Amino acid sequence: MKKVYANAAEALDGVLQDGMLIAAGGFGLCGIPELLLQAIKEAGTKDLTFASNNAGVDDFGIGILLQSKQVRKMMSSYVGENAEFMRQYLSGELELEFNPQGTLAERMRAGGCGIPGFYTKTGVGTVIAEGKEHKDFNGETYILEEGIFADLSIVKGWKADETGNMIFRKTSRNFNPPAAMCGRICIAEVEEIVPTGSLDPDAIHLPGIYVHRLIQGKHEKRIEQRTTRPAA
Predict the structure, then answer these.
(1) pLDDT tens digits, 13-38
(2) Strand, helix or coil at 211?
(3) Would strands 183-194 and 213-216 be described as parallel, antiparallel, or unpaired?
(4) Which phi and psi angles does 134 have, rounded to 5°?
(5) Other C-beta atoms within 10 Å of 22: how many?
(6) d(Cα 33, Cα 3) in Å, to the nearest integer?
(7) Kind and range of the H or E run holding 156
(8) What is the pTM of this model?
C-alpha cells in the first residue's frame, strides 16, 4: 500500500470535502501540521469543523483558515493568542465547543480506540456539563463525554519510516498521537522519512497502522512568544 506522497496537495487529493470534521495535532505552534493546513487553505475546502487544542495564531496554523473563513466550528481547549478567533466567536461568525484540555485529548484517544463515550469528573458543576448525561459512581458525579471520530486527521511528526511508524520530537508529542488515532484517514507530515526497519521499535510513538498517507517537507520553526533577557 502506497503511503508516501510527493507533497501536501497530492496527499490530500480525493480526501477533502466541505463540512468535514478534521482532527489536527499540535499545541500552540508546536507540532502543528503547517504544510497540510496551507494545502487545505489553497484547496478552498469550507464549512470545516476542527478538533484541535487551539487555532494557532492569526497568520499561522489553523489561523490561516480562520482568516479565509473556511472554518465553521472549533472544538478546542484554548483560544488565546488569536485575535481573529476571538473576533469571529464574539461576533457569532464561529461556533465554539469548549473542552477541558485533558477531556479533548481523551475524546480523541477514545475515538481512536473505538470507544463511543466515557465518564469524567472534569467539568462537573460548570457550563461544560450543561446538557450532558450525569451519573454517580461510588458517591461521585461524572459526566458523559463522547469520543471524537474525525473524517480526517492531520498531524506533524519528526521522523517516520515508509510504512508510517512515527516518532514525535519532544513536546510536539502533545495532541499528535491521539489526533492521529481518531481519524478515518490520517495524513502525516514529517521532517524526515527513513527506510522501513531503521527505527528502533521501542522508540516509535505512533504505529504505522494509524497513518494512511505521509509526506516529507521543510517546516518553519516559529516561536509563539519570544522571551529574552536584556543584554548584559
Answers:
(1) 999 999 999 999 999 889 999 999 99
(2) coil
(3) parallel
(4) -110, 140
(5) 27
(6) 17
(7) strand 150-161
(8) 0.93
CA distance 4 to 188: 10
Alpha-helical segments (H) within 58-117: 63-67, 83-90, 101-112
- How would you class 170 by CB atoms within 10 Å of its CB: exposed for 0-12, middle for 13-18, buried for 19 or more? exposed
Cα distance between residue 54 and residue 8, in whole Å? 22
Residue 132 and residue 23: Cα distance in Å, rounded?
22
Per-residue model confidence (pLDDT) at position 192: 97
**Pairing mode, if any, of strands 150-161 and 213-216?**
unpaired
C-alpha distances out from residue 51 to 18, 114, 199, Å: 15, 17, 30
Residue type, 91: S
Angle made by CA atoms 154, 158, 163, in degrees to the nearest 5 = 70
For the chain, list residues with pLDDT below 70.
none
